[in-house]
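Sample intake sheet
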Amino acid sequence: MNKEQTTVKPCAVALSNKGSDPYLAGAARCEDRRFWRWGEDNLLPEALALMARRSTTHRRIINDKADYISGKGFICDSHHEPLLNHFIAQVNGEGESLRSLLHKLALDKSLFGNAFLEVVTDPSHSFLALYHQDASRCRLARDSEHILLHHDWHQFREQEARVLPLYPRFEEQEDGTLRAMIHYKEYEPMFRHYGIPTYIAGLNVSAIAYKTDRWNIARLDNSFQLSGVMMLDSTVDSDAEAERIARLAEQKFGGNPGQVLFVIRDGAENDHSRFIPITAQNEGDWQALHEQAVSDIVIAHSWFRTLSGLDYASGFSSERILQEYEIALNTVILSEQEELLEPLRELLHTVLGLDCSSLQIINRPPTRSKPIYMRVWEARKADGLEYDPEDPDQQLFLSQIAKYNLKSID
């Protein structure tokens, strides 16, 4: 996976605008740099993205993990750091919120095992802007100190590439800004330059789930017709005429599945044309194969069935959903959130001088276990915790606490 791809020839420095962003004026293009391949053909991200578009369960888990990791917003001590709320609401010149930025990073990291964040500031640290960069556009330079960005790695052109240093190093650009790239990656032994997605062991079962779905679609398109051999009695003058008749019949009656092999033979006095079906009682095997593949996909993702919407058909159990969410929160979600937030807190402190110790992601379960009209002491009693009905704080309704949290987000 870490193989030398090519040598990028020296090229000029150019500017490129990015929409209405006042800060993003472009970066220096690559100068005699080489990069590490991401996959044997350097196109592993494209293959992973294609698989995610084809396998329904695989795609659902990736989307759900990104949603849970990015949470429902942020909360901070706005009295101590009033500027922190402004940064949460807008992290760049495009008006993007911190929650939206974090969701894109979480999605890339769940899908590719890698995520890239561009950092923009100036020598005086008068501002800080953060931009998500599509991981499929990024490659690590051979010196392991820069990231190359290109819009199409199928047709790489060195004059169209950009290069940015890896954080904490910054490099000044022609527009006067300082820029760097943060590279998030999932650790995997033997892979130094790129991370590996957690579901890597489930690639084959994801392909199985896709192919079984495709097989069912083909059967539906063919109205579930049987496969077989069609023997046609016909007198033809040449092999070409027989081929033409067979192809014409195949266009009208053939399908996949429901494939039909047409055979032309010399006609007799009586027409003996007939269809010989080929039956195979394997529908149960296909269904079992699909169900096993779906279960293996969930396991490969280190995820949970109810959080992927797989067990709703057998009954909606809010208690089980809450239990699995609690396990996912403590085993997957919180650790991923901390990994994404750690460099952001450091950036805000070193560049803007903000104390970000109070910056936290708001996590909420997908369903509620208690009605919002319960008081706090009643909820604590239901959970088997100590409670005091005379405590003023425990006299509050759960709906009042939820309303307070929503105001804090706003």
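Comment: The first strand starts at residue 4 and ends at 7. Residues 1-33 have pLDDT under 50 and may be disordered.
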